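Batch manifest, entry 17 of 40.
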Amino acid sequence: MNQHIRHSFLCLAKRCNFRYTFRAFSFSSRHYKVKISYEVYPQDIRLELAQEPPIFILHGMFGSKLNWHSLAKRISSVTHRQVVTLDARNHGDSEHTPIMDYLTMRDDLLGVMDKLKVEQSILIGHSMGGKTVMTCALTVPERVSSLIVVDTAPKDSPGSDALKVYAQKMKEIPLPSPSTSMPEARREVGNKLKAFVEEESVRLFLLTNLKQSMDNSYFWRVNLDAIIKNFESLHSFPQINEPCSINTIFIGGAESKHVDSTAEPAIHRLFPGTAIERIPQAGHWVHSEKPSEFVELVQKFVLS
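Output type: structure tokens
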């Protein structure tokens, strides 16, 4: 990982350490009654009274809606739309459940839209979130105004085995005692992560999931058991044959393997005629590595 990408990861990790308020609600999905956490930008307008479809943003694996806090505000400002960021089930402040696949996470997204009385929205999804929004657009296109897929494709994800290893190894790490301060705990766990995560920036990103409960005991905010159990489903993509005619753009990093030339046949099979934009000197976390270029593409697409 080059110095520029390492710096962007560090910035992303640091941005996750701020206080915020969130909204959450429970609803019945296909399998469980789950609590999905979400945040609305800005909060001074009722979503159902907005004149244009809002934008819903879904993060990737091991992430949370906090990763998109700054970008969500910028996207709302430049597009003049309300933006809603969600925590996927088993991530962030959303509920932990044993079931985790793209059809279920699609239902979670639709549940939030129903709660907010949003009939149709623009969807943005990165990595795991990108596969969720693609699944939504392909199966319930009437709920999707347009689609922005960020550095993923409707196929098996390249190099994703490392993510499963991260989850397995994180689960094995003994967590600090409750008397340990958070800075000390992060250093302690970070040192243990070095055994299987070479890059400091990636370790810091994973460490954003280390949290303390009310009794000061430490825990992983992300549901590692669910990720490990359902990894094959998360690594792949649902078997869907009917193509999508919704206005769509794929935004990838030029240095990423997720939306390279080998991914184009799968993209064009299900999203014929879609535009593919690759931002130079950016990898898989293209939105955090090149935020200005990313927001500019989103603005142009939404307002076109």
